[in-house]
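SEQUENCE-TO-STRUCTURE ENTRY
===========================
What this section holds: a protein sequence and its matching fold, both as plain text.
Question of interest: how does this chain fold, as expressed in backbone structure tokens?
***
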Amino acid sequence: MIAIALSGFFLLCLLAGLFYAIISVFLGSFTGGHDYSGTDAGGIDHGVSGEVHFSPMSPMVIATFVTTFGAGGLVAAKGMGMSVIPAVTVATASGLGFGALAFLIFRKVYSATQSSSEVEVASLVGTLAEVITPIGKDVMGEIVYVSKGSRFTAPARSQDNLELAKNTPVEIVRVVGNTFYVKPAPR
């Protein structure tokens, strides 16, 4: 009687995990993308990292555990004729093993997709740039620079209050707000 109930439990776990996976595939195609028009509420900066790490208790890892727990238990109990304790041991080992494998795979995939092309302003000091709109004495101009493989423009002033013509190579000395202070680049 216990073996029949245990096999039923293993089958229930297998079907529940498969059902969750199938529903996730179908519903995953229809959710998201529901954007709304937001409002700009000003410019507040803070120094908190926005990284998110993949959790070992994520729904995908749990579903993998439940599915492989059920499949491993069914194979052990019905296919190999094991008694209750060995079947539960095999089911638990297969669930933990495949759950850990799923966690490692998803963590690798998600950590690779979390790279950012966002530039930290502090890292730009010392970066070479080029004047694209002339910078005069007490007159703001514009520079162009390359960071992390992307080209950016920014408003700029001369650090030493010098006039800097268009196409002059410059070095970023400091950044105050969104204004870049530059000096002629060393030759």
Notes: Residues 84-113 form the longest helix (30 residues). The CA atoms of residues 137 and 161 lie 5 Å apart. The chain has three helices and five strands. Residues 2-28+56-113 form one domain.
